[in-house]
Specification:
heterodimer, A: mainly beta, 7-stranded mixed beta sheet, 11 strands, globular, B: 109 residues, mainly beta, 5-stranded antiparallel beta sheet
């Protein structure tokens, strides 16, 4: 049973470009969470999705950031018109069911560098 | 405001020694408390998860304690190994997970 997969592992974008980060949850998991980790800081919650639904996006910046989890395929975190401050590690986690009582399994992360 | 604070920020110990990492939290409503280990360049991996009624939980050489009255937790690592070098993150569940900034542990030979 493969773990949570994220790709790419490293992504370099110039200011103004778009970044697309992909996350495939563990088999059988229908709940996906995205987190951002800035250097020297803890992980910060961004968004929680189920298949085809955004459940909680309270941690997402209001502009330029969007997320989706379609019926088929991976979850996508999209950052438009990237700026240097978007440089961070972005982690995806999945769980088998809803709620913070369930274990979340983390992927290896995507390290985004904006030049 | 929900917060999780960890201390020390970083720690260096000799291989074979024990160490204890601290976590204080102000999170409400409290659901559970978790300790994660994050190796450099990797995602966090769960070590323990404790609910309100649990005082202590072990996972091999890792033992976590929880005092829900004082809102404190500790992670004790026994007989440290070089592979224990990592960031240890305390996470408290409220309506969502609230992460501490982590303690960076370096075990040297």
């Amino acid at each position: 049973n493969a773990g949570v997969m994220q790709n790419p592992r490293h992504l370099v974008r110039r200011r103004g470009q778009e970044a697309r980060l992909r996350c495939s949850p563990m088999k059988g998991h229908s709940h996906v969470y995205w987190y951002r980790q800035l250097p020297e800081e803890g992980l910060k919650f961004m968004v929680y999705l189920q298949k085809e639904n955004i459940i909680d996006e309270s941690g997402m910046p209001k502009e330029r950031f969007s997320a989706e989890f379609p019926k088929e395929g991976p979850s996508i975190l999209r950052i438009q018109q990237v700026v240097r401050g978007d440089s961070a590690a972005y982690f995806c986690a999945s769980s088998p069911s809803q709620g913070v009582t369930y274990e979340q399994y983390f992927g290896p992360g995507t390290r985004l560098t904006v030049t | 405001k929900n917060q999780v604070e960890q201390s020390p920020q970083s720690l260096i110990i000799l291989e074979g020694k024990n160490c204890t990492l601290q976590c204080n939290y102000t999170v409400s409503p409290f659901s559970n408390l978790r300790w994660y280990k994050q190796d450099t360049g990797r995602g966090p991996v769960s070590l323990t998860i404790m609910t309100f009624s649990e005082n202590t939980k072990s996972n091999g050489r890792y033992t976590a304690t929880l005092d829900a009255d004082t809102k404190q937790s500790s992670l004790h690592i026994t007989a440290s190994q070089l592979s224990d070098s990592a960031s240890y993150i305390c996470v408290v569940s409220a309506n969502k997970l609230v992460f501490g900034a982590g303690t960076i542990l370096r075990v040297k030979s």
